Amino acid sequence: MCFMKIRMFVLLAGLAVGAGAEKPNIILINADDLGIGLLGCYGQQIIKTPHIDRLATEGMKFNRYYGGVLCAPSRWTLLTGMHDGRQGGWDFTSAGLLMKMDREKVPEAEYMLRLNEFVETKSTPIPEQEIFLAQVAQQAGYKTAQYGKLDSGFLTNHDRITRFGWDEYVGYYSHQRAHGFYPPYLWKNGEKMPLAGNSRIDCGKMSEKGDEPVGSGGETYSQNVFIEELLTFMRVNKDNPFFIYHSTQLPHGPVAIPEFHPDYAEQKGWSLAEKKYASMVRMLDDHVGLIMQELKTLGLDENTIVAFTSDNGHELYYGPKWSFPKKRPGGEAANLTDKKWRTSECGDIFDGAGGRAGLKRAAYQGGMQCPLIVRWPGHIQPGSETDLLSAHYDFMATLAEILAVKLPEGKDSISYLPTLLGQPQVEEHDYIIVNNGFNKMGRAALIGRDGWKLVEVDREADHFQLYNLNTDNEERHDLAATYPEKVSNLKAILLRELDSPRPDLERL
Fold first, then answer.
1. Quick count: other Cβ atoms within 10 Å of Cβ 167?
2. Is the confidence at residue 331, as pLDDT, over 80?
């Protein structure tokens, strides 16, 4: 059944929660540029991620899950329930305004006027009938909160954040400022939140080499602020159902950390940047542990759904980016016959993409295949896995079905709740779409339920690649010349979907 058709959810009749049962709290943790290969439960051998791995041990791990290839469109597809090939999926607003006004020392009253005017005139208008992810939870009576990167298009403001459905928030309005971990201030519910000991307008952004001493940039690390605010929200709202979206910066670079994790401080043979990056991943894992411990302390553990994912594929902030060495670090010959960059072959000691081709911004698996782990005690079989084809935009339908509210018509989203509950998944995607708006000629991809993947390399030159992910998830063998009819069929679908109208906005 194609995901394109307009459909409605029926009210949940005891499927997930049960008649009269207490509504579950929901926490969605979205890591930033975390490669799927960086988690122990997905094969990581060096960096330890015990708390995230525990989510998989006690919940379900998805093996065919996709995000985007870049942070903003990835967040857009998650929050709208639409694939990012749709019109608007790659609309950005320039992110540099806030730092420009900070450098100019613009007075506070003028600052807010300029920010609001810029966002209102430069951002894509939000149609009145648009319904976002957090609004689905609000319809069910949930208190909603977001912590971390607040933008869905590089720059935002209070009005847009509340329009997206967030009752409370703490974080960055600007994507550019989020490249540093020591901002002079964050934003909390429309007001500036000064951070002690941070004075740099660039928010303490480090160099791409990552060779600055640990603790450089300021005194108050943004991620510690986020986790404390998040835990406080849980405590205040423990008696009411809540939906928390933690869009953390970790482990996005340039690398910066207030202190090494003890496991990596004296690691021999590692560069300073590698030690800092491993410590950032470990901090992310530790913060997941703090959330899980707080759930137990508050007596909410058994009635809370915790989902963990990442916005897009892996990115290198600590190693030899885009190089093609003749030798791997161990001395053996690098296998680069297909000319695709792979973390497993080009000097990434952590192999963050797990051998997959490409990094963030690439239409190959390393740029878009993401982890998804969901834990819900008493409902999800511990230690289970699924090969269901799914994507970020499916979270909206899943949330709607869990909360027994109607999914807005025309969304691309399909609920994977039946799979979570170990029940037959009647409705599935025939294919999913992941776009790459960087290249005017396109570098989009279509992934089919049957395992075939079409990659658009150069539309004007009619250059498309075809892979069978069932046997070649590393995308080493382009089969386009062998199966021209398959290429033709998938190409027609992909080109139809790119820059296509949004049926969810046509319903009124």
1. 19
2. no
- Contacts for 223 with CB less than 8 Å, ≥ 6 apart: 181, 248, 249, 250, 283, 287
Nearest residue to 425 (alpha-carbon basis) of 441, 436, 414, 440: 414
How far, in Å, CA of 298 to CA of 214, rounded? 34
Tokens of 73: 């469109």
How many C-beta neighbours within 10 Å does residue 302 have?
Answer: 13
Residue entry with tokens 């000629």: 441
pLDDT reported for residue 98: 95
Burial string for 428-464 (b: 16+ CB within 10 Å, else e) reads bbebbbbbbbeeeebbbbbbbeebbbbbbbebeeeeb
For strands 25-31 and 304-310, give the pairing: parallel
* Max CA separation in the chain (angstroms): 64
Whether the predicted pLDDT of 465 surpasses 90: yes
Cα–Cα distance, 447 to 71 (Å, whole number): 20
Length of the chain: 508
How much is the pLDDT for 342? 81
* pLDDT greater than 70 at residue 326: no
Instruction: Please write the tens of the pLDDT for every residue from 174-224.
Output: 999 999 999 999 999 999 999 999 999 999 999 988 999 999 999 999 999
- Phi/psi of residue 238, nearest 5 degrees: -65, -20
The span from the CA of 137 to the CA of 442, in Å, is: 35
Of the candidates 307, 268, 311, 273, the one whose C-alpha atom is nearest the C-alpha of residue 398 is: 307
- Reported as a pLDDT band with limits 50, 70 and 90, residue 345 is confident
Tokens 């990581």 found at: 44
Within 8 A by CB and 6+ apart from 16, the residues are 379, 401, 402, 417, 421
CA-based torsion, 443, 65, 84, 466: positive or negative: positive
Q: How confident is the model at residue 8 (pLDDT cuts 50, 70, 90)?
A: very low
| 437-442 contact pairs (CB < 8 A, 24+) | 437/70, 437/73, 437/84, 437/89, 437/90, 438/70, 438/361, 442/498
pLDDT digits (tens, 9 = 90+) for 243-301: 999 999 999 999 999 999 999 999 999 999 999 999 999 999 999 999 999 999 999 99
Domain ranges of the chain: 25-505
pLDDT band of 370, cuts 50, 70, 90: very high
* Top-tier CATH class for 25-505: alpha beta
Backbone phi and psi for residue 364, each to the nearest 5 degrees, phi listed first: -90, 175
Q: Is 362 exposed, middle or buried (0-12, 13-18, 19+ CB in 10 A)?
A: buried
**Residues 234 and 228 sit within 8 Å (Cβ to Cβ):** no
pTM reported for the whole predicted model: 0.93
Contact 48, 449 (CB under 8 A): no
